[in-house]
Design goal:
The complex is a heterodimer of chains A (92) and B (257).
Chain A: E1 2-7, E2 13-21, E3 24-32, E4 35-37, H1 41-48, H2 56-69, E5 73-75, H3 79-91
Antiparallel strand pairs in A: 1-2, 2-3, 4-5
Chain B: E1 4-14, H1 16-31, E2 38-44, E3 48-51, H2 57-60, H3 63-68, E4 72-75, E5 83-85, E6 90-98, H4 108-126, E7 130-133, E8 137-140, E9 143-153, E10 156-164, H5 169-175, H6 184-194, H7 198-202, H8 208-223, E11 225-229, H9 234-248, H10 251-254
Parallel strand pairs in B: 1-2, 1-11, 3-4
Antiparallel strand pairs in B: 2-6, 3-5, 6-10, 7-8, 8-9, 9-10
Helix pairs in contact in B: 1-9, 4-8
The chains are: A alpha+beta (92), B alpha/beta (257).
Chain lengths: 92, 257
């Protein structure tokens, strides 16, 4: 398991814990002082990320698409921030 | 035309679990049409640390130190960061309002600004030159004096936040986990520069009664309405106790991330 924390521009902090199988995400846990509406989206995103490749561009696209499909609003954090932190944790 | 009336509830001093439970109970009562728009004022005893909905208690809070110091730890139903709620240092408010109210925008950022106008006005009435700062803060000369957090569910907007009467960064950082102990002093100094309080700005001891009166008038003036003091409904009281026991004081909730 790898851990990382990433300070987002604007001051919020994202933390990620990532369990990998090769370059594939087995499990991911995201925490931090950001806002997501509706809140339940983060649990759903963590499940959806299982099986994704550990690639910043792919993860950014996936998270942005997932958020748009679910009409999710992110405040203080972006899909890029989550993706970057997940990759940092995976490579830690 | 009669001025719009909101309900004003001063719930005084309670522990962290009941405080968070009562917020949710009022939201549920509002969603069922049982109560009007409500402004709640409250304080915390024992003093407490609350963490944001998406934070990890283990990562953010030194739970052992909190236990030793008799400080409660609770997860909020809103996002944002860890907050130390001092019994003597903070007045807390909650605003529970229907999503379709004209004061509420689909834009969260805009809604923060609109709803914070009551607090900004209240602080100004005290002589504190407060201003809203995106995303969700109120500042005086760039220093934070109030932090706010919002969530929406069941067609109800719930915004709660702090108003600092006094501030003690040393105590706050003794309760929070710092990834690198060497930077603890630096963080305390930094917080002393970034955060301020009503007492510090006005250079006098402002009582909670004076602070509450100003906040109430601030909301009334900002939104051109009357805040009518009222009591909690039996539904809210019962539900709050149930949520305090079953949810907000449970490990399942507080350690869920």
């Amino acid at each position: 398991m790898g851990k990382a924390e990433y300070k987002v521009e604007g001051g919020k902090l994202v933390r990620a814990q990532v369990w990998l199988s090769g370059k594939m995400i087995q499990k991911v846990k995201l925490t931090g002082d950001f806002f997501i509406h509706p809140e339940v989206f983060l649990d759903e995103l963590e499940v959806a990320l299982q099986g994704c490749m550990l690639d910043e561009k792919v993860l950014t696209y996936f998270i942005r698409d997932f958020a748009a499909k679910n009409h999710v609003i992110l405040l203080g954090v972006s899909p890029e921030d989550f993706a970057r932190c997940i990759v940092m944790a995976g490579e830690a | 035309m009669m001025r719009e009336e909101w309900r004003l509830i001063d719930t005084g001093v309670h522990d962290a679990y009941y405080n968070m439970a009562l917020d949710e109970a009022i939201v549920i009562a509002k969603s069922r049409g049982l109560v009007p728009v409500t402004l709640r004022l409250f304080r915390w005893a024992p003093s407490a640390v609350s963490i944001g909905y998406f934070q990890s208690m283990e990562d953010e809070v030194d739970v052992n130190v909190c236990k030793q110091m008799g400080v409660d730890c609770v997860r909020r139903r809103t996002g944002g960061g860890a907050v130390y709620h001092d019994t003597e240092g903070e007045l807390t408010y909650s605003l529970i309002i229907e999503e379709e109210n004209p004061l509420v925008s689909v834009d969260f950022q805009k809604t923060y600004e609109t709803l914070c106008a009551g607090l900004v006005r209240g602080l100004q009435l005290l002589g504190v030159s407060a201003a809203f700062k995106p995303i969700n803060d109120i500042v005086v000369d760039g220093r934070k004096i109030s932090g706010n957090a919002q969530t929406r569910s069941m067609k109800v907007v719930h915004q709660h936040g702090t108003i600092l009467r006094t501030v003690n960064p040393t105590r706050m950082f003794s309760l929070l986990k710092i990834s690198n102990e060497k930077i603890r002093d630096k963080m305390i100094r930094s917080a002393e520069e970034r955060v301020t309080s009503v007492n510090r700005i006005l250079q006098r001891n402002v009582s909670f009664e004076e602070l509450k009166t100003a906040v109430i008038r601030g909301f009334e003036e900002a939104f051109n309405l009357t805040l009518k003091p009222a009591k909690l409904t039996v539904f809210e009281k019962k539900l709050a106790l149930k949520l305090a026991v079953e949810k907000y004081s449970s490990s399942a909730w507080n350690y869920k991330r």
